[in-house]
Design a protein that fits this description.
2 copies of one chain form a homodimer. The first copy, chain A, is α/β, with parallel strands linked by helices. Helix content of chain A is 27%, strand content 36%. The first copy, chain A, has one domain: Rossmann fold (3-Layer(aba) Sandwich). In chain A, helix 2 packs across helix 3. Chain A is globular, with a radius of gyration of 16 Å. Chains A and B meet through strand 3, helix 2, helix 3 and strand 5 of A and strand 3, helix 2, helix 3 and strand 5 of B.
Chain lengths: 193, 193
Amino acid sequence: MRSIREWIQEESEVLGPEFLRVDGILNHCVDPEFIVCVGEELWRRFNDQEITCVVTAEAAGNIVAYELARRLGVRALYAKKGKAATMVRPLMRALISPTKRAAVELAISRDYLSSEDRVIVVDDFLYQGTTSALLADMVVESGAELIGFGFVIEKTFAGGRDALARFEVPIKTLAPIRTMNPSSGTIEFAEMP
Amino acid sequence: MRSIREWIQEESEVLGPEFLRVDGILNHCVDPEFIVCVGEELWRRFNDQEITCVVTAEAAGNIVAYELARRLGVRALYAKKGKAATMVRPLMRALISPTKRAAVELAISRDYLSSEDRVIVVDDFLYQGTTSALLADMVVESGAELIGFGFVIEKTFAGGRDALARFEVPIKTLAPIRTMNPSSGTIEFAEMP
């Protein structure tokens, strides 16, 4: 069985020193074999934490969050972007997406988080940590306990880990990337949690 | 085990004669037990069709498409909305969302569909069929073969089935709704494929 790092190395394209396309297995075309591996690896890192809910933001994080939630036997909760006409008692944060350069509203309904909950925030990428920090803020505001963060890929040079440090919880990444070389297409992984 | 119709009846809220909120199991907070049921039921309807790819549109369809793809052992492909900076060789369609009232671009990369493919288009809801028709158009344009449509919930009064009739493929719905009564909260299901 391929490791997550092998999957990333073999199935992604380095488009720039900070720009990785994983459209063939994760971000557009989704390979369930890869996602099941991801779910298994994240499960190994969090299954002893009595997690009750996996939180993410639509759309890229949904499948990873769902697979992990299925594996843990708990629910997944994805923040909606933009005006969510049917949402009640929303917690809201304004998100400026670094890739799309537009402000959108992130929303989670208080109906689905309570002080009984033990939550992990997961996403496909940890880049600058903006989205995950907003999600974690909403989790804390709901009264739930934030237990940790889990990511498939981390761009370790982008400062995301620093942006999440204030939450003082473990940050687990399956494929932390130190550098990417667009001419050779190679990815150098970091030794990291 | 609860049937899909029982899940919908018990876990959704009727907000208007055409307006159903399923945020507690499907559209915001996701119950893996329900989604696994949905995947199993859609699998039963399509597993003898040699499907190679399950196509949907982000974000609501992603988890349903992924679970069905995992069950079938094939890949899921979700159309991206808005400008997708990293996409190559895109097939594009302009979508006017009936709920959000704004035009967005739906895009699928030709890299992930070919004339070898046998495709089903799935989504959480069949309402007017707009999104699914655009997805099916893109599938046909790619040269792949469209085998059918699969939906969790159909609002049979909204004309979606008519909008998809021109594709001349089976349309399978797990919970076809004939009427919804916002005062009593009851849902009357239709007898239908």
